């Protein structure tokens, strides 16, 4: 599981976010309340459940609205939303399917944007439409992928440029056989 997480083509901040989630280190209300007896542990998104990581990202009615708008669906693992680690492990079985890594990568950005959206609501009293959250996730994912493609093309250009120059130089060197020596 860890090797796959660290090898995903996603930004480091998203990798760290997922890693913290798997290590129960994301400061959700229930965790803060349990460790420090501070804050109200009820989710401000739904006002019904304890704000656990699972509730915040997967089960809260606000999170469910976002997932309904998502271009990737994880219907087969809905029963595992009680435990983020179990959900994540089942989620990785998608690697085998067509475009599985892309779906996994996009999903990590959706999780990240749900987290950011819930924080915007909590700290700045700003709410975001589910399609806005999905669009932000999609755009961040595409921007990162475009950056990877540009970096690869620059790398390829740097390694192939000298060979192209040599070929051009060779073609500019007169062939002594045709000059009549």
Write the layout of secondary structure elements.
Elements: H1 2-7, H2 12-22, H3 29-36, H4 53-59, H5 61-69, H6 84-91, H7 100-124, H8 130-172, H9 176-179
Helix pairs in contact: 2-7, 4-5, 5-8, 7-8
Could you explain the architecture of this structure?
With 181 residues, the protein is mostly helical. It is built from nine helices and no strands. The protein has one domain (2-155). It is 67% helix and 0% strand. It is globular and about 50 Å long. It starts with a helix and ends with a helix. Residues 2-67 form the Reverse transcriptase zinc-binding domain. InterPro entries: RVT-Znf. Pfam families: zf-RVT (PF13966). This is Reverse transcriptase zinc-binding domain-containing protein.
Work out the helix count. 9
Order of helices and strands: HHHHHHHHH
> What structural class do you assign from the helix and strand content?
mainly alpha
The strand count comes to 0
Distance between the termini: 69 Å
Oligomeric state of the chains in view: single chain
Radius of gyration: 24 Å
| Helix coverage percent | 55-70%
Strand content is under 5%
Number of separate domains: 1
> Low-confidence stretches at least 5 residues in length (pLDDT < 50)?
163-181
Shape: globular
Mean pLDDT: 82
Query: Biggest sheet, open or closed, and with what strands and sense?
Result: none
Describe the structure using short key phrases.
single chain, 181 residues, mainly alpha, 9 helices, 0% strand, disordered C terminus
